[in-house]
């Protein structure tokens, strides 16, 4: 058998240490009653968490919404005009397509513009139309004189004229129409912004037409004028008819006809001013040698001078004849009165 040695002294020492580590009940009343010896610490600053960040964002959003509800932005602030340009690209494209195709069964304003009329699309449509009309007009002028003995010069005044005509039409016509509807007490409740938006999008059809006007065929240019005026003008007439139909029949028809005629006049003005064949003005035939012009030493008499000389010659002839006849008569008288010696 194997011998087993047990260290009794070491075992008894470990048992004694374990007995000393036992938990003991300590009375706390003495410490609680003595408040001067009590020391406490209150935590006030806690590290940020994801939940607290979300709460801060929510609070800021609520604060912004509350401020927007309390009052509208001022007329002189950027935020006031920002609301007129709050539109998506899909909406702009849809409004451009709707302004080119008149539909008697749907109102362009109610189905496409409301409830968010914008100025973003109309502004860029007018700006694009200014440059396409001016550039295409100069190109048409160049093509009309190409191959002839005349030089061509770019006309920068066309840009200024196009900008003045287009932006004046976009602002003045809606302002006049809105003032008329307000004066007549229209019940359609068309706002000035809505009318401005309708007129701005109605000009979009003239952008591709202005490019096609470069083609030097007179009949094609006039067909494009009629197509653009009828299609976009038809959208204007159908859209604005509910605003005037409650008025007298005569007044309503006069207003609608004037709206269509003004829209057609704009297209006709584009054609006549920008895309008519320009008459050549400056000759390209130049010579490096000096041009010497020889004048006659004796100038050719004019008709008045010739008449004067003829009259003088006739007068002299008459005088000489009278003189001769007088001399002959005097001789005859002298001979008859002379007595013989």
Automatic annotation (TrEMBL):
GO terms for cellular component: Golgi membrane. GO terms for biological process: vesicle-mediated transport. Coiled coil: none annotated. InterPro entries: Yip1_dom (IPR006977), Yip5/YIPF1/YIPF2 (IPR039765). Residues 110-268 form the Yip1 domain. Pfam families: Yip1 (PF04893). One of its GO terms (molecular function) is small GTPase binding. The keyword DNA-binding does not apply. Keywords: Membrane, Transmembrane, Transmembrane helix. The keyword tRNA-binding does not apply. The chain crosses the membrane at residues 119-140, 160-183, 190-213, 219-241, 253-275. It is a multi-pass membrane protein. It is found in: Golgi apparatus membrane; Membrane. Belongs to the YIP1 family. This is Protein YIPF.
């Amino acid at each position: 058998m194997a011998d087993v040695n047990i260290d009794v002294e070491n075992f008894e020492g470990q048992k004694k240490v374990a007995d000393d580590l036992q938990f003991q009940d300590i009375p706390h009343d003495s410490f609680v009653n003595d408040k001067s010896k009590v020391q406490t610490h209150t935590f006030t600053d806690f590290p940020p968490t994801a939940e607290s960040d979300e709460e801060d964002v929510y609070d800021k959003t609520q604060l912004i919404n509350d401020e927007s509800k309390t009052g509208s932005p001022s007329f002189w602030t950027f935020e006031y005009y920002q609301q007129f340009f709050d539109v998506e690209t899909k909406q702009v494209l849809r409004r451009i397509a709707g302004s080119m195709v008149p539909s008697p069964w749907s109102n362009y304003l109610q189905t496409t513009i409301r409830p968010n009329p914008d100025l973003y699309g109309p502004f860029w449509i007018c700006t694009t139309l200014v440059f396409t009309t001016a550039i295409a007009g100069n190109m048409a002028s160049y093509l009309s004189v190409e191959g002839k003995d005349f030089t061509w010069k770019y006309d920068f005044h066309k840009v200024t004229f196009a900008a003045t005509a287009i932006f004046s039409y976009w602002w003045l016509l809606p302002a006049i129409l809105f003032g008329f509807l307000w004066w007549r007490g229209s019940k359609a409740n068309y706002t000035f912004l809505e009318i401005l938006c309708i007129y701005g999008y109605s000009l979009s059809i003239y952008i591709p037409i202005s490019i096609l006007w470069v083609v030097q065929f007179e009949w094609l240019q006039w067909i494009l004028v009629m197509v653009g005026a009828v299609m976009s003008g038809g959208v204007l007439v159908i859209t604005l008819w509910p605003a005037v139909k409650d008025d007298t029949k005569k007044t309503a028809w006069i207003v609608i006809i004037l709206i269509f005629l003004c829209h057609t006049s704009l297209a006709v003005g584009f054609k006549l001013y920008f895309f008519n064949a320009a008459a050549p003005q400056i000759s390209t035939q130049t010579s490096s040698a000096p041009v010497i012009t020889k004048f006659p030493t004796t100038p050719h008499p004019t008709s008045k001078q010739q008449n004067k000389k003829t009259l003088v010659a006739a007068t002299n002839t008459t005088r000489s004849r009278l003189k001769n006849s007088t001399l002959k008569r005097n001789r005859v008288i002298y001979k008859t009165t002379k007595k013989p010696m």
